[in-house]
Write a structure and sequence with these properties.
Structural class: mainly alpha
Distance between the termini: 42 Å
Number of helices: 5
Mean pLDDT: 79
CATH class: Mainly Alpha
Strand order of the largest sheet: 2-1-3
Number of strands: 3
Pfam family, one: DUF742
Low-confidence stretches: none
Organism: Actinomadura physcomitrii
CATH topology: Arc Repressor Mutant, subunit A
Radius of gyration: 17 Å
CATH architecture: Orthogonal Bundle
Protein name: DUF742 domain-containing protein
Oligomer: single chain
InterPro entries: DUF742, WH_DNA-bd_sf
């Protein structure tokens, strides 16, 4: 039976059409500094780059990070694995398009317990 050309060939249940490996342009590791899951990312106040030099995910990150976002929030909003988001963030960081603020730590070098509680509560809310 011939299919209707106007009929969609994918639906919500089909999952992502573009695989995360392709979004990261084949890269599986990081080139820059490690970006913590609870690090806060904000778009840098610089002239906007040429849109032809950005992928759709890069553009979305810059839009979302006008207001500070954690790496975990970005991964959730983009529906991408955290590893892929970290790769994309490193690219944007190298170009000076975002700023990454590391999580607060105590004198012992560990994350502040209040911050960890907020992260856990936020993850549960997802």
């Amino acid at each position: 039976m011939p299919q209707d050309p106007d009929e969609l060939w994918v639906d919500e249940q089909a999952g992502p059409v573009v695989r995360p490996f392709a979004v990261a342009r084949g890269r599986t590791g990081r080139r820059g500094a490690a970006i913590d899951l609870i690090a806060v990312v904000v778009t840098a106040e610089v002239p906007p780059p040429d849109p032809r030099t950005l992928g759709p995910e890069d553009e979305r990150i810059l839009e979302l990070c006008v207001h500070p976002q954690t790496v975990a929030e970005l991964a959730s909003d983009l529906v991408l694995p955290v590893g892929v988001v970290r790769i994309l963030l490193n690219d944007l960081l190298e170009r000076g398009l975002v700023h990454v603020r590391r999580p607060a730590v105590t004198r012992a070098g560990r994350p502040d317990p209040r911050l960890l509680r907020e992260v856990i509560d936020g993850l549960r809310a997802l």
